[in-house]
Design goal:
The chain is of the alpha+beta class. Helices cover 19% and strands 32% of the residues. The radius of gyration is 26 Å and the shape is globular.
């Protein structure tokens, strides 16, 4: 049995955009083993009273019994960052924002002219937020008994709305209403026999959650080169509910990924400043100073090779970088925080960006079709920020990204170079870190053991 990804999968990942790739890879497969279960989250330390399990023969009672032996759970409270403005009972005229809609056209649909619109916006400087509307949002209007505009509500999402209300002086005031949803923990696991996306789908995970899982472990695992048949994962993540209805998934709380027999663990920790990041169980950051790859799930078309024959010049010419084959327009990410020292044409590199990361490291991204907005010489970029898009400018035989990683000005093989770590948990915070994370790691292990027992 070959240990590498199937050739067809790699070719698809490299030649199609991420969306099309995922669509192709998410076809059902009976060869992928996966399980999923969800539990209520509590803060009082009590054991969960209700557990829903699918795709497993383990009974609810057995799972509860296992959890009671190891740990309790937590439960969040539902609240709001702002108290909702009280709107007098009235009928609402609601309009879903579509492409091409403007605030003016929506006011006219509701029966109000531009004069009324300007009056609303002029009420307070914060009211200008109403002008920032996007397709998919809902704008609602409420009238009083005289047919005058009484209230406006811009529903940005299930959790956030922007409400404006008329005051006695005729001016409108506004407030942002943010709901905090009920949170339940969900557990999922899977074994990879074809691809991470197939295994994630069979485990009941959405595309965004699979991407988040890959991002957490992406500093240690190259999900194109390193994945093998038989690799496995398990995770606990949040499910968000409003009035008993699930509206979305939240963050991954804790996860394991076994790659070629090597088990990696990650757990979410919120520090004293309120910043959340993923760490190993002993407090080392999962986040390295650099991402391993600048493009998600792209195929390497040419490795670092000092004796490579150039595809355009047809001469032996050192290839001091890594080429990623991807569709034109595929986003390119900065692999580390830094300062853009070049953004423009650069000889055979075509449109290129060079980023300096402190004194020791620099990275180069070449053959771009265009640069991302705001990326120019002198600008600062963050790790994971989109800096440009794949193209074929310069000496390129087709759309791809040429990526170079330099240490003290010398090109290194970006696939093999040892990446420096980000800052670990400070020793003064270790007691709080342990308090927060040991419960989640214990729950993850408990569920994993329960499903292993059920599979026997």
């Amino acid at each position: 049995m070959k240990n590498n990804f199937p050739k067809a999968h790699i070719l698809a990942a490299g030649s199609l955009s991420l969306t099309v790739t995922i669509a192709l890879l998410l076809s059902p497969s009976s060869d992928v083993e996966a399980n999923r279960t969800s539990i209520p989250l509590q803060i009082d330390g009590k054991n969960p009273t209700e557990i829903h399990s699918t795709q497993t023969e383990l009974t609810t009672a057995e799972i509860v019994s296992n959890i009671e032996q190891h740990s309790g759970t937590q439960r969040s409270q539902v609240d709001s960052t702002h108290s909702a403005t009280t709107i007098p009972p009235a009928s609402w005229d609601s309009f879903q924002v579509k492409n091409g809609d403007t605030l003016s056209t929506l006011f006219k649909k509701a029966g109000f002219n531009d004069r009324v619109m300007y009056k609303v916006i002029a009420g307070h400087k914060s009211n200008k937020k109403l002008a920032s509307i996007y397709p998919g949002e809902t704008l609602s209007f409420s009238k009083d008994d005289n047919g005058e505009l009484n209230s406006i509500k811009l529903q940005r999402s299930r959790l956030e709305s922007f409400v404006l209300s008329a005051q006695d002086d005729g001016k409108f005031t506004s407030e942002t209403v943010t709901l905090k949803p009920d949170v339940q923990l969900a557990y999922a696991e899977g074994r990879i026999d074809s691809s991470l996306f197939l295994a994630g789908q069979k485990a009941g995970l959405k595309q965004s959650m699979i991407m988040e899982l890959a991002n957490i472990f992406g500093w240690d695992i190259d999900f194109i080169l390193d994945i093998r048949n038989g690799d496995s994962f398990s995770l606990i993540y949040e499910e968000l509910f409003i009035d008993g209805e699930k509206i979305n998934n939240g963050k991954i709380i804790a996860a394991t990924f076994t790659n070629q027999g090597n088990e990696l663990k990650a757990v979410l920790y919120k520090d004293k400043k309120g910043v959340q990041n993923y760490f190993t169980p002993d407090g080392h950051s999962m986040r390295k100073a650099f991402l391993r790859t600048p493009i998600d799930f792209a195929r390497i078309s040419s490795h670092f090779n000092l004796r490579r024959k150039h595809p355009v010049l047809h001469t032996i010419r050192a290839h001091k970088g890594t080429d990623y084959a991807a569709g034109r327009g595929t986003p390119i990410k900065a692999t580390g925080d830094g300062k853009v020292v070049h953004a423009g044409r650069k000889g055979g590199y075509g449109k290129a960006v060079v980023i300096q990361h402190g004194q020791k490291f620099s990275t180069l991204y070449a053959h771009m079709s265009k640069y991302a907005k705001g990326v120019k010489s002198g600008s600062r970029v963050k790790q994971g920020q989109i800096i440009g898009y794949v193209g074929s400018t310069g000496l390129a035989s087709g759309p791809h990204l040429h990526y170079e990683f330099k240490v003290n000005g010398v090109q290194k093989n970006s696939i093999k170079v040892k990446l420096p770590h980000a800052t670990p948990v400070h020793k003064n915070e270790m007691p709080e870190f342990k308090k927060q994370t040991e419960l989640y790691l214990s729950q993850l292990e408990t569920f994993s053991q329960s499903f292993r027992l059920a599979a026997k």
